[in-house]
Each structure stands twice: as structure tokens, then as C-alpha cells.
């Protein structure tokens, strides 16, 4: 299963994108601000990671679904993200809820995603049904 996250609005306080699953639009996303300005997947020069306030670098990552002790439920987890640990895809509403993770939902209010619990649940179900297959997410 292949996920694609297309970042569409790169603001000073948050990033809005669209998430596709195997080429089909799934939902909107919300992340922390992007600091990988040259989009090469590496922080260098003036591109400085601010812990808990920085979107992950552009690139392609492995994906799994496993239990999150913090959230006490199964969630999609990105694998081998440079300079980051524990990057999940989960519910939330604003960039304050991300800590570097990807929030799913509907971007109907500026700087927010709504109905995120339903999208998280559906995403976990879809990815769970693909366990055993290669799962990836590419961020462009």
C-alpha cells in the first residue's frame, strides 16, 4: 500500500496537505511548519529542527501499524525518519497537537483539521488490512 502526502500550504505556524492512498484522495493533513526548505530530506544550514515544532523532512518512508504506548491504541508509524523518533499519523485538530506527527481530517477551518477521529480510525483499518504487504508513505 502506498500513501502519498502532498504538502500544499506551507505556513509559518502549520502545514496543510492532502493524503492519497494508492492514488486515491483520502483526506487532508495538518503538520508542524516545514523547515526542510530545499526539500532534500536533510536539515542543514539555516534549516534547523525545533523539537516538537517541525514537520518531518520530505522523502519516502516505510510505514507500519503498531501499538502506541502514549496514545494507548494502534496507529500508523513512520519508520527511519532522519532526526525524528516516534512519528505517527493520528487524530488532532491544530499544530499544537502534532509534535512532528501527521494529523488527518478535513481542513475546513484555517489552521485546523476536523473530524480527525473518524479519519484516523478508517486509516488504521485500511492499513491494518494491508499488514504483510509493503507499506510506504512519500512526502512531496
Describe this structure in words.
- This protein is 10% helix and 36% strand.
- With 140 residues, it is mainly β.
- The protein has one domain.
- The protein has an 8-stranded mixed beta sheet, covered by helices on one side.
- A hairpin with a 4-residue loop joins strand 4 (59-68) and strand 5.
What's the order of the H and E elements? Answer: EEEEEEEHE
Roughly what percent helix? 10-25%
Proportion of beta-strand residues = 35-45%
Main sheet: strands, sense, barrel = 8 strands, mixed
Question: Whole-number average pLDDT?
Answer: 95
Number of helix segments?
1
Radius of gyration: 14 Å
Strand order within the widest beta sheet: 5-4-8-1-2-3-7-6
Unreliable stretches: none
Main features:
8-stranded mixed beta sheet; 1 helix; globular
Give the SSE map.
Layout: E1 2-10, E2 15-21, E3 24-31, E4 59-68, E5 73-79, E6 89-90, E7 102-105, H1 116-129, E8 136-139
Parallel strand pairs: 1-8, 6-7
Antiparallel strand pairs: 1-2, 2-3, 3-7, 4-5, 4-8
In brief:
This protein is mostly beta strands and 140 residues long.
